[in-house]
Amino acid sequence: MFNLSTDNYLRSTIVLTIDTITSMIASGIVILFVYLLGAESIVTNGFILTWLMTALVGSVLGFVATSAYKLVIRFSTLRDLARLCMAVGCKEIILLMGISLFVPQLTARIVMMLILTDFLITIAGLLLTRVIMLTIYWLARRGQMDSDGKTKILVYGIGEKSVAMLTRLRISPHFTVEGFLDTENKELNKNLLMGKPIYHFKDTTDLLRIREQHQIQGVLFAYLPDARDEKNRLIPACLELGLKTYIAPSIDEVKDGKFNANSIRNIKIEDLLGRPEIEINMREIRESMCGKTVLVTGAAGSIGSELCRQLAQLGVKHLLMFDNAETPLHNVRLEFEEKYPSLYFTPIIGDVRLLDRLDYVFSKYRPEIVFHAAAYKHVPLMEENPCEAIMANVVGSRNVADKCVEYEAEKMVMISTDKAVNPTNIMGCTKRLAEIYVQSLGLAIENGSVKGKTTFVTTRFGNVLGSNGSVIPRFAEQIEKGGPITVTHPDIRRFFMTIPEACRLVMEAATMANGTQIFVFDMGVPVKIDDLARRMISLAGFQPDVDISIQYTGLRPGEKLYEEVLATKENTLPTDHDRIFRAKVREYEYVAASECVDRLREYAIAENKYNTVILMKATVPEFISKHSIFEKFDK
């Protein structure tokens, strides 16, 4: 009859049958009441036949019309009761019509009494059958699933999301919810919510007492901002006491409308470093992207692939994914075929350094909007390979920009970095040179010295959490190996943002821009990398400097101790968005910028790295090398 190992406790057809039988029994009880109350004259064969046949038709039509039989019984709510009432109401309307038509001798008063009585008894019967089915379910479930081996947790908060989490976890094979943990309402301590106690938390002592009395093993946050709010209070207390901290799955992990309790995971450092989501105008962004052919270079990278994910939900006509990394692009393709089956997209293997390949893509597909994310980004590696950095980051950017102009793309958005501000390394300077060329080309189009219609926009932001090769994945790998974690300097600080946050900035900038502009983002407060490493160790269940050590290796070539603050009153102008600013930068003549890129390309092809770097420093005089062999050229 039912299988507890599946999502369907009872098939909907069985529920429909049970509901119909219950409804018919209720109508039969009404006839019995009428007879027992001494109104035998009413209970004629014609009345009984009409009453029961009309009740049968009304019940089936009511349940089918309202889909009341399709409700998941174990997750029933007050809204479901309202739907049951609607279904029974449909039954009573048909009953009223049938009695009025076939038994006209009954008075209106008697008929209404019969209808009201039938309604109340039917509702009571349906609720009773559901209580019985739920009781059978939970008894069977308890027999199937022993609580031994399940993690005992408290759900943080007493809001709607927390209560909903308790409902969803009642059948979890991994977790047992022992109660709720509240930090605000001390007077609610030991009160019951959904049959579970509420425990008040003020400090570590409270948490220790709760853990010891109830053998609690972890705390689950149903809402990510709650975890961020508690990153300096409850979460450290949990780590100190050896309690696990969990986060519920995001909306992206809820597939086909079904909550997957297996998606509950340990809180990661990225969760705590993130800031509240940037508010952006999705309506304007959708209008600007909908129906357009959009090209993303570097589409297999961290930023590029997330840009593609967000574009996939904006109604673009055709999404072009351009990258030279075969396996990562293949993986992105498989992901999009599964997640976005209706999206028209084309993965393209190619390199922005190859002008002929770019020309083929632009001439065949005619992209209207281009997001240029392809670049080399690792500072020490580019310090050792300046010529390749020039070819990819500068020449590649020029190639993309020139093709945008040639094939009349509406807009090109170039993704830059905070390292382009007063650069101290090759990578940062190449990104600044790319900015210079793109900006000078855009300004030349605006003043009429170059023919074209493309608008050029540049976005700068800092380090991206979880991107390929970034510090957090490296620390996680070192922790998994048992340490040590390597930090370049105990005082080094960096700004961080999440990948979706960075991409939302890019999308907003693309919409906001009405001319050649460089946009920067308010990055908030910098994070001390040493603190980040220690917190990651604690989140993994280890003790810093005891279980896993931290080693300081010294600043790497080209590395700064402190990154530049992107958005200050001195170097930016405000925009309509309170977190996005327009950079004030020196403007370059297009002809000079183009000649510079030509010379840099010649030096790079010839592998003349010293002349390459000397020209870079001459063009970007604020480029002062740090901890690098190229410091000698600053003299």
Structure notes:
The protein has 635 residues and is an alpha/beta fold. It contains 21 helices and 22 strands. The strands form five sheets. Strands 10-9-8-11-12-13-18-22-21 form a nine-stranded mixed sheet, sandwiched between helices. The longest helix has 37 residues, at 108-144. The protein is elongated, with a radius of gyration of 33 Å. The model is unreliable at 1-8, 143-147 and 251-259 (pLDDT under 50).
What descriptive keywords fit this protein?
disordered N terminus, 635 residues, single chain, elongated, 48% helix, nine-stranded mixed beta sheet, seven-stranded mixed beta sheet, 21 helices, alpha/beta
Task: Furnish the topology, listing elements before pairings.
Blueprint: H1 12-36, H2 45-66, H3 78-102, H4 108-144, E1 151-156, H5 160-169, E2 175-182, E3 192-193, E4 196-200, H6 204-214, E5 218-221, H7 224-229, H8 234-241, E6 244-247, E7 265-266, H9 269-273, H10 282-289, E8 293-297, H11 302-312, E9 318-323, H12 326-339, E10 345-349, H13 355-365, E11 369-372, H14 379-384, H15 386-406, E12 411-415, H16 426-447, E13 455-460, E14 463-465, H17 471-480, E15 485-487, E16 493-494, E17 496-498, H18 499-512, E18 517-521, E19 527-528, H19 529-539, E20 550-552, E21 572-574, E22 580-583, H20 590-605, H21 609-619
Parallel strand pairs: 1-2, 1-5, 2-4, 5-6, 8-9, 8-11, 9-10, 11-12, 12-13, 13-18, 14-17, 15-20
Antiparallel strand pairs: 3-4, 6-7, 16-19, 18-22, 21-22
